[in-house]
Amino acid sequence: MSVNRRIRLNLRNFGNLPAIMLSQYDEGYNLVFEIFDGASAAGDLSGYTATLKGVRSDTLSYSFTGTISNNVLTFEIDTTMTGVAGKGTAEIVLTASGVVFATFNMPVFVEKAAVPDGSIDADVTRAEEVAEQIQQIVDTAAGTVTQSIAPEYDPTLTYAVGAMVLYENELYRCTSAIATPEAWTQGHWTRTTMAQDVSQLKEDLTSMQTATASDVGKALKAKTVTNGKVTEWEFGAAGAGGGFNPWSGKKICIFGDSIGQGYNNNNHSFVDVLSESGMFASVHKNCVAGTTTSTLYARLLESATEIAAADIIYAEYEANDIIGLKAGTLTTAQLVTAIRQSVTYIRNSNSTCAIVWLPLTIQHLSKIAGTDLSYYQSWVNAVYPVFAELGINMLPIFDTLNVNHASSDGRHPNDAGHEAIADLIMQMPLGTSNYPTALMTEWTGGAY
Q1: CA–CA dist 194, 77 (Å, integer)
Q2: Closest Cα to residue 357, out of 309, 391, 310, 405?
Q3: What are the sequence ranges of the domains in the chain?
């Protein structure tokens, strides 16, 4: 079997990578790592070498040498990696001139091959497989899920209300905006119920080990893997049972313009991709081409029922805002007033939901409003402080795009572009509170 599995690898974030799941005896896999330096693609890596080493029970069991082309690292693996079922750890080592530059660890789960029909105690063996694989996930559930939800607390950063972090292996939500970097202050944070949810999830998975006769031959395994992250799990065949998804049961609403509508792409946008992914309990779409932030309040009134039940609300209007500022049909004061009015309505309707803004990057802005960035700068100067004050996170969705993601008009994404945006949202549903106070030059990794 020949499969390409792409995983993003960031040279500024050494340490653990998302887990991958393989099938026993599979070969011909290509593990592909797109190497980034922060938000930008890494530069010339021709002088680097890369090794993938596998460890099981403290013993080296396999080693592969990768090939590097531009910023893409590829390992072709074979049965020396997949021949033994069970849980292991793979280490990726980047060296330059014989000196280790970076190392990354990646959990590896090799699913045991099916027992041939007619063999002795086949059903018993399959049932044992179910218990073994579920136990592996039980053992790592709390750490893996928790790490995927939030980063470690960083005393050099600022945080908005609602931001989530890990501190001493516990999940916390910011309850008092931290405008100046500080050492950990317990009074500014509250432990979230997500930690309790993870504990409950572990109990639920443990109880699943008592498989009934109809469960024999089934196993909890990844159903959908996006950019190396498992976004959907399944028990047995597709649709056969529960999921292992920290966002399962969450409801989201997305308000936006032609990008969210899916203009020039048969009205199929990243919002529809999210809805089809099954990651969230529900996805509400209210996106109309040509609209701006000044219309957001009216859109919210149209979706009052969905707003009241939402866990996360996204807004995506910046493109038309910039066009309106340049044409003189909008002012920054009008936009700030609209944002405050909209957030007040949301908070009065739903005090617990997160609000995430989906902004542009400079490359995409130049496609819309030309090279004059003064209008963009005026938008940034007026709006970013309001976002920080109101606890609105941001997620720069266009940073994940490149020239291959543009539709025929050069301004709106195609199917691949919308899928890339949806992938980013599924990896970072709550966005980030650490956005800049000037032009987003550090968010311009794409070439869209």
Answers
A1: 36
A2: 391
A3: 1-113, 117-246, 251-443
Cα distance between residue 77 and residue 63, in whole Å: 9
As a whole number, mean pLDDT of residues 79-95 equals: 83
- The tens digit of pLDDT for each residue in 142-155 reads 454 445 567 889 99
pLDDT at 289 over 90: yes
Q: Does residue 295 register a pLDDT over 80?
A: yes
How far apart CA 107 and CA 56 sit, in angstroms, is 11
- CB burial of residue 22 (10 Å; 0-12, 13-18, 19+): buried
Q: What is 1-113's CATH topology?
A: Immunoglobulin-like (2.60.40)
Tokens of 19: 């887990």
Q: Confirm if 25 and 83 have CB atoms less than 8 A apart.
A: yes
Return the DSSP state at 329: S
Classify domain 251-443 by CATH number: 3.40.50.1110
Residue 173, strand partner residues: 164, 190
- DSSP three-state, residue 369: helix
DSSP state of 406: B
Instruction: Classify 347 as helix, strand or coil.
Output: helix
Taking a C-beta distance cutoff of 8 angstroms, is the pair 274, 423 a contact? no
Rounded to whole angstroms, the Cα distance separating 20 from 65 reads 19
In the chain, pLDDT over 70 holds for what percent of residues? 69
Specify the pairing of strand 67-69 against strand 72-77. antiparallel
How would you class 214 by CB atoms within 10 Å of its CB: exposed for 0-12, middle for 13-18, buried for 19 or more?
A: exposed
3-state class (DSSP) for residue 447: coil
3-class secondary structure, 69: strand
The per-residue pLDDT of the chain, averaged, comes to 75
Q: Say if residue 298 is exposed, middle or buried (CB neighbours under 10 Å; 0-12, 13-18, 19+).
A: exposed
* Cα 36 from Cα 42, distance rounded (Å): 5
- Ramachandran assignment for 376, one of left (phi > 0), alpha (psi -120 to 50 degrees), beta (any other): alpha
- Cα 372 to Cα 335, 336, 393, 399, distances in angstroms: 20, 22, 26, 20
The backbone torsions φ and ψ at residue 46, rounded to the nearest 5 degrees and listed phi first, read -65, -25
Which among 223, 56, 200 has a CA at the least distance from the CA of 142?
A: 200
